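Ticket #4471: complex job returned nothing on first submit. Input attached below:
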Amino acid sequence: MTTVSNLKHNKVVRKVVQISLLTFFLCTLMITTLSAAETDGRWHEIKTSLFGDRAIQNGEDVIGLETPYRALDAAVVPISIESKITQTQDNYIKSLYLVIDNNPSPIAAIFHFPGKHNWQSLSTRVRVNAYTDLRVIAEISDGNIYMVNNYVKASGGCSAPSLKDPAAAAAHLGKIKLKLPMESSLGNLLSTQLLIKHPNSSGLQFDQISRQFIPANFIRTIQVTFNDEVVFTADSDIPSIHFGFKPEEEGVLKVEVKDSTGRTFNHSVDLPNQEKG
Amino acid sequence: MTKHRPRGDLNRWHTLRLRTLVVFILLCLDTGILQAQPSGFIEIASGIYLRPGIQQNFSSHNRGHIANIGFIVGQQAVAVIDTGSSYQEGLALRRAIREITALPIEYVILTHMHPDHTLGAAAFDQDTPVYIGHAQLKDALIRRQTYYLDRLEEVLGSTAEGTRLALPSAGLEIDQEVKLELCDRILELQAYPTAHTNNDLSVYDRNSGTLWLSDLLFVERTPVVDGSLLGWLKVIDYLDQREAIPVVPGHGPVVNEWKEALADQRRYLEALLSGIRKIVRKNGTIEQAIERVGQEEKDNWLLFDEYHGRNVTASFVELEWE
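Support reply: We reran it on our side without changes. The output follows.
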C-alpha cells in the first residue's frame, strides 16, 4: 500500500498511523465478537452432544432457577431448582440437566426421575470457574424440552473451585449423611439433604513440572431409592443434594454412590427416621 | 542545552543546583535510600525487610500489592518470605533485595498457596533458590494454577505478563519444624494442620524474636477461611501460647501487641462457628446463614462485605458434617 520512500513524508506517516489504529480497533472489535461467539459456540456444542437437533423451548413456566448474582466461594455455589408444573404419573420431569457453560466439565449433573415421586424443589451446590451461563434443561415425559438460564459472576479474591482439604476428604472417603426433618411423618413431603464426602479430583489438573496429572477420582453416579424403587439417579460428582420426597409407607431410604475408580458406597435410613450405617 | 550558558546566569545556575541537591537529599531521606531501604520497604527488625500490602482487594489499581511480603538478610545468604501477586511484583522484590545486598538468595519461603503470596516466585528462578513450603503446598498450587493464572490475567491485564508458577522443591510435613541457617541467623519454619488453608507455614527468626505468621493472622482485614474453621481455631489456641515480638501478619500492620489481634480474629471465627452451628442444627440453608451469621462483626473489619459471605459458605460446608 505504501512504499518505503513515501514513509519519509509526514502526511503519509500520519495516514499509516491512522490506518494501523483503525486496523487495531477493527481487530479488537473482531476479537470481542469472536469471544462472544466462542461462548455461544460452547453451548451449541454441549447442546448438540446432549440433544442433537431437538428443539429446546423457553422453560420459564416449567422450571424455576435461583442462583446467586456472584459466586462467593467458587467451590460451593448454592443453586435451587423448582418444578413449576404439578408432576403426575403421565406428565413429569423425566430428566434434568445442569449445565455450566464455561466450566472445564460443563455438564455438572444429569438427574433422572422415574415419575413416581412428585417433587417441587431440588437444590444443590456446584463449582463455578469463570463468568458463565448456568442452565437447567428439563426433559418432560412427553418428549418436550425446556430450558432456563442465569448468568453467574465468578467469585472474587483468592477463592478457587477446588476442595479446601483433599486429605481430610480422602480420610472420610465415601462417608454419606442423610439429613431429615426432626419430625417426619408418612404422607408428608420431607425436605431431605444428602451429603457425600469425596475428594472429587477431576483428573484435569496438570502438574507442569512433573508433567503428571493429579489422578481422576470423582463420584460418577448417585442413586436414591425408597424400598428399592428409584427416587432419582444423578450422574454427577456434586457432594450435596436437597430434595423433597413423600413416603406413603414405612420403609428404607437408601443411597448408593459409585465413583470413577469403581468403588461403591452405601447408606440408608429407616423411615420414619432411624438412621443406620 | 546548558552548554553555552550566559555568564550572568551562572550564580542562578549554582543556586538551582544546590537546591536540587538539597531536594534530592531530602527525597533520599524520605524514601530511605540513605538508610539503604528500598522504597516501599521498612526494616522491622535488624535485617528483616517488609513491603506492607495495601488493605484492599486485588485490583489493577493496586497491581495486586495486597499481601505483606519481604525478606531476611543473614551474614551469608538471603531468605525471601512470600513473593507477591505477579512476576512483575516478584522482580520488584528482587530489585529491592539487590539494593540492600548482593548476597545469594538461597531460600524462597512460601507461607501458603494464595496467589498474592506465591505468584511472584518465578522471578527468583535465576537465583536457583530452594523453594520451601508446606508439604501440601505443591498439590494445592497444581489444583488451582489454571484458575489463579486466568484470574490474574483477567484482573491485572498486561501487569500479569510473565507470571507462572514456581512449585516448592522442599516441603515440610504437618507439625514438622525445620531450621534454615543463614550463617549468623537461624530461621525456624513450622508447618501447621489445616487452618487458614491446608498449607500454612510460619517463620520464626531467633535473633530478633520476630514471628512471621503470614495469613494465620489477619490484622484489621477480614480473615479468610480457605482451609478449616475448626482447624484454625485450634491453631489459634496453640499460637496463643507462643512468645514473640513482633509478629508479622499476612495482611495489616506489624504488631507487638499481637495477642490482642489474635483474640480479635478468634472472636470473629467463633461468631461464624456458633452462628452457623445454630442454622445447621435447624436444617437451615447456606443462604440463610449468609444473611444472618456474624453480622455483628461487620464494623470491626475491612473488606467485610467482600469476604464474609464466602467465609460463611466455606464454613457451612465444613460444619454440616459435625
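Residues 177 and 195 of chain A are 5 Å apart (CA to CA). Closing as resolved unless it happens again.
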